[in-house]
Amino acid sequence: MKSASATALRVRPQAARTPQSIATRAKLVAIAERLFAERGIEGVSLSDINKAAGQRNKNATHYHFGSKQGLLQAILDKHVHGVSARRNQLLDEFEAQGGLGLPQVVRAFVYPVAEKLFDTDGGHHFIRFQAQLVATLTMDVHQLHASALKIAPVERLTAALRAATPHLAPPLMRQRAMLATVLLFDGLADHSRLLEQADLPSPQIDTELFIRNLEDCIIALFSAPVSPATAERLAAASAALPGSHLK
Description:
Layout: H1 6-9, H2 19-39, H3 46-52, H4 60-65, H5 68-96, H6 102-114, H7 123-131, H8 134-141, H9 155-164, H10 170-197, H11 207-223, H12 228-239
């Protein structure tokens, strides 16, 4: 993946060295992820974030992050490395227990993100924020688009998923992976809103039930057989490409 330009993501050295500047950056990130979650990334400006954070310097966010792109990256950096580490921990545990079948791979895919529902340091906001970036980042993972945003490596998870879905040709596996990612983040984002808005307890908003049901749905998504119509269209789409072979 290509990283954002040095200019876009440049942070002045003094902004990252003092306890005060570190605290200011953390506050700006927390305010930004909340506003992006509530209003949408396109609906929030750097000026909005400065005002909500009570910054007297109207250029504070630009000073600390260089640009809106740099601020988006800072929010990702706050969360995705922990998600990646937790995912690798689960994959290690499952491998030590005897292997990585589809249920184990899907659990490693789902749980590190779902656990953000219990993260009081912006976990709910991160899920809603990330849901807005799913298409861009997933296309980048599959080399269909070059994003300036950087995410943690997913090669290990992708390889495990390929091995667990031998019935799927690579293009179909990639499409289903994109669908699964959308279902994961949009589903968790909607569930987090239900938790905030519901007045009475209900099985529908039981979080453990929702996560387990979400896991079942994603396993079913990857397990579903390929229909004759889909196989026919895949062959036609493949034949139309240069070289006429599946990649």
